[in-house]
Amino acid sequence: MYFEMKDIEVNYDHIRALKGINITLEKGNIITLIGANGAGKTTTLKAITGLVKIGSGEIWFKDQRIDVLPPQKVVSLGIAMVPEGRHIYPFMSVKDNLLMGAFLRRDGQEIKKDMEMVFDYFPRLKERLRQQGGTLSGGEQQMLAIGRALMARPELLLLDEPSLGLAPNLVQRIGEAITVINEQEKLSVILVEQNAKMALKISNKGYVLETGNIVLEQESKDLIKNDHVRKFYLGG
Ligand code: ATP
Q: Kindly report the CA angle at 147 between 141 and 150, in degrees rounded to 5?
């Protein structure tokens, strides 16, 4: 298996945020984790990148156990995360924000090419190249955060609620961009979303997380039709 989480538990003091979850991802696929506030979605992504310590279980990426590695080592294996709330550098230009994504790389020509690739996906960023990151609109900041993650040339991209706070037409654009990047760059994606409609539309497989447990796991095209999902996540 390309990527696998086995029986993962995470505890914060007295809170059991993840109660033994199992997730698998095949290379080149998009999977999504949907769930209400506090279900454990962000914690799952942080467990993958090593930002929270797991209590028990194992995480494997390309035949290597990664839950024992420090976060920077996980990044160097090709796993990049776009955190919730974007976290771009507000006082740096768009260009410098993008270059920060490539700070582990030394291949100058390739970095230039990848910046052009990011502009192909998000032309707005090219128009705003010299503008300070913090003065971009919410949607533009989200594009910048995704663009910056792509500049690390990841194999596996973890996206934490990319549609948060965006207008419906922008949610759709972000969804389309994720699909195109997935296809063209052969990028595998784990997408955390409260916007279940968009997430299930663009993913191969979906997991429903409720208070630290996976309660449903199905191909997304089937999950969209599931009564429980329709009632609680797609508004009936
Ligand atoms: P949301 O959609 O609201 O972002 P989520 O599904 O991403 O929610 P998590 O952020 O993973 O949820 O949180 C899972 C549970 O763990 C919640 O009950 C949360 O309060 C708790 N939690 C998260 N981080 C910490 C922390 N650093 N210390 C203590 N409890 C935490």
A: 150
**Residue having the nearest C-alpha atom to atom 18 of ligand 1:** 38
Q: How many other CB atoms sit within 10 Å of the CB of residue 235? A: 8
**Higher per-residue confidence, 175 vs 236:** 175
d(CA 90, CA 188): 28
* Cβ of residue 91 lying under 6 Å from some atom of ligand 1: no
Looking only at the bridges linking them, the beta strands covering 56-61 and 64-65 are: antiparallel
Helices 168-184 & 138-150 angle (0-180, nearest 10): 10
Instruction: Note the pLDDT tens digit of each residue in 108-155.
Output: 888 999 999 999 989 999 999 999 999 999 889 999 999 999 999 999
**Alpha-carbon gap, residue 141 to 98, rounded angstroms:** 11
Is pLDDT of 85 > 80?
no
Give which of 19, 25, 1 is closest to 190, Cα–Cα: 25
- Is there a contact between 31 and 50 (Cβ–Cβ < 8 Å)? no
Spacing, Cα 212 to ligand 1 middle (Å): 10
pTM of the model: 0.94
Helix segments in the chain, DSSP class H: 41-49, 71-76, 94-100, 108-121, 123-127, 138-150, 168-184, 196-202, 220-223, 227-233
Instruction: Inform me whether the pLDDT recorded for 236 exceeds 90.
Output: no
Residue (of 73, 69, 42) closest to 58 by Cα position: 69
Whole-angstrom distance, CA of residue 103 vs CA of residue 98: 9
CB 19 within 8 A of CB 166: no
Is any atom of ligand 1 closer than 6 Å to the C-beta of 25? no
